[in-house]
Backbone:
């Protein structure tokens, strides 16, 4: 009978040890799974924040590109207007010089030609001082 009691106690103890080991393995696995889930959630949160920052940079780049395109178009219009004004001035001077070509043979210039040359010089100095982006002075 003592053998049966000892055998029963051994069986109960063995069963207890097996249950304890199974419990510890389950708890360890649950801890590892929880840790992995927490790490994954932290990574996802960090990635979402980084993607948000990257999207903000992309959005600001788009607005900068639009602003640069607008400035480029305005600069093109200003340059075109400057070229047209220069062409008109050059034509006026050539026409005036052609009209008085015979007189220039003796180095005599018409007063209107000299006035136009002086006006053109002032406009050129004004345009050079104010830069390309300002409005082009009108021909006088």
Residues:
């Amino acid at each position: 009978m003592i053998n049966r009691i000892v055998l029963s106690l051994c069986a109960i103890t063995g069963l207890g040890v097996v249950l304890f080991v199974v419990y510890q393995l389950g708890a360890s696995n649950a801890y590892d799974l929880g840790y992995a889930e927490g790490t994954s959630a932290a990574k996802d949160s960090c990635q979402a924040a980084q993607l948000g920052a990257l999207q903000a940079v992309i959005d600001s780049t788009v607005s900068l590109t639009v602003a640069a395109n607008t400035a480029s178009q305005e600069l093109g219009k200003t340059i075109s207007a400057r070229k047209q004004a220069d062409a008109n001035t050059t034509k006026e001077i050539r026409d005036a010089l052609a009209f008085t070509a015979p007189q220039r043979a003796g180095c005599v210039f018409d007063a209107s030609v000299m006035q136009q040359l002086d006006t053109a010089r002032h406009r050129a100095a004004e345009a050079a001082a104010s830069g390309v982006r300002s409005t082009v002075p009108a021909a006088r």
